[in-house]
Structure formats: C-alpha cells, structure tokens
UniProtKB/TrEMBL annotation:
It comes from Penicillium cosmopolitanum. Its cofactor is FAD. Residues 19-39 have a biased composition (Polar residues). This is Sulfhydryl oxidase. InterPro entries: ALR/ERV (IPR039799), ERV/ALR_sulphydryl_oxid_sf (IPR036774), ERV/ALR_sulphydryl_oxidase (IPR017905).
Amino acid sequence: MAQAPPEQINAQFGGKSNLFAQTASGSSDSQDHNATGNAQLPKGVVLDKDGKPCRTCTSMSSWRALTKQAQADPSANTSSSSTTTSTNPLAAPATPSPSSIPSDCPPDVEALGRSTWTLLHSMAATYPEKADTKQQEDMGGFLKLFSRLYPCWVCADDFQGWMAHPSGNNRPKLGGRKEFGWWMCEAHNEVNRKLGKPEFDCRFWEERWRSGWKDGRCD
Ligand SMILES: Cc1cc2nc3c(=O)[nH]c(=O)nc-3n(C[C@H](O)[C@H](O)[C@H](O)COP(=O)(O)OP(=O)(O)OC[C@H]3O[C@@H](n4cnc5c(N)ncnc54)[C@H](O)[C@@H]3O)c2cc1C
C-alpha cells in the first residue's frame, strides 16, 4: 500500500503545534479545537511535543489511517469537520498483526515497547545476584536517563511519573537480581494495567526472562 511520505505528513502538521496543543499526559483522549478551523486526526494518533505526529507513540494501524488521510485530503488538518486529537495510544484501532507489518519498517509504539521490554527484563535477568554500590549506581543512572529518553514521550512521561511516586514505593529496587527483576515486572504490569492488558504473575519473571520455562520448551 502506497503511503504518504513522512515529509508530507510533517508538512501538513508543521508549524501547527498550537493547533494540536497537547495535554502533557497520554492517559486520556482530548478534543482540541482551533481558532482557524477544525482539524481531525485519526483515533490513536499521538502528536509529538512539537505538534507533529509521533510515529513511535502511535500504533501502526493509526499511523496508516493518518497516511491514508494525508493522501486522500492534503488539507485534512484544516477541514471543517469536527476535531478529535488523541494523545492516548489506547484509543488506537486494532493494530495489524506484527506479521502483516514489514519487518524493515520503523517501529510503532507496540514494536518499540516489545523490544524495549526484552532489553529491560534481560538487563534484570543478567543483573548481579548481589549488586555492589557502583553497579547499583550504574543501573539507577541508566533507568533515570532511559525514562527521559524513551522515544515514545507519552510512555516516558508516565514511566517517569510512576517511578517518582511520592510514596517512594516505585523507586527502582537495585540491591540484587531478584528484587530488581521483580521491580521490573511490577513496572511492566503498571503499563499493562494502563493499557487494559492482563497482568503478568511476577513469580514467573525469572522463568520468562532468565532460566526458561520449567517444561523445557526453551531448552
Ligand atoms: C517503559 C514503557 C512504557 C510504555 N508505555 C506505553 C504507553 O503509555 N502506551 C502504549 O500504548 N504503550 C506503551 N508501552 C508499550 C507496551 O508496554 C507494550 O510493549 C506494547 O503494547 C506491546 O505489547 P505486547 O502485548 O506485545 O507485549 P509487551 O507488553 O510488550 O510484553 C512483551 C512480553 O513480556 C512478557 N510480559 C508481559 N508483562 C510482563 C511483566 N509484567 N513482567 C515480565 N514480563 C512480562 C510477556 O511474555 C509479553 O509477551 C510502553 C513500553 C515501555 C517499555
């Protein structure tokens, strides 16, 4: 399927950051109307802080809807129809199965998430059983930077917010592998809950990410 190139999409949204002014959080849909006319974005499309569509914050299905719209109606962002500007990846229509997305395309929010969880849980799985001060500092520093630099900004904002909960209960637990792996599992479950996905039973994080399942299917 031919799609509008990123330049065309960006050109449509370039300089329109006020038009699509975002709420800081990705936790809810918002309806934004502008002074010069109404603009409409497909459901689930998340804008970057500069007002342009954020590919790594958006599911592939929503991205495709956006590129289709851009091709069909290059002036869609100033059309007179009603405006729905979503900051919530949850609002996206059903995502095409990963197998229907060519493997050499930029990641959408889900592919990015899956790969990142693989990295994060694997880091926990290979973390020392008992970490010394330097190892704890290194991992703490990594998580701090990671939560600022993660390429889906709405995800990053939420993750930072969760870690910084005033109770202090969500601060990374870095003493050793078991507690760090459990903490990572809880962090992931927090996102699962937000997205309406089933929670993972954290008693099994090590089988999933370190040793392989006891039934031997990973051996
Ligand atoms: C820090 C972070 C924040 C994110 N925030 C958002 C967001 O705000 N909005 C959004 O749309 N997407 C977000 N994502 C992406 C989202 O979490 C998923 O990765 C994505 O939706 C794909 O989900 P999935 O069902 O393929 O499995 P994933 O959630 O990616 O999980 C991959 C695999 O990990 C295992 N697993 C699942 N839960 C756990 C757990 N608790 N502990 C250990 N293993 C587990 C399962 O075997 C699963 O198949 C975020 C990702 C990250 C890394």
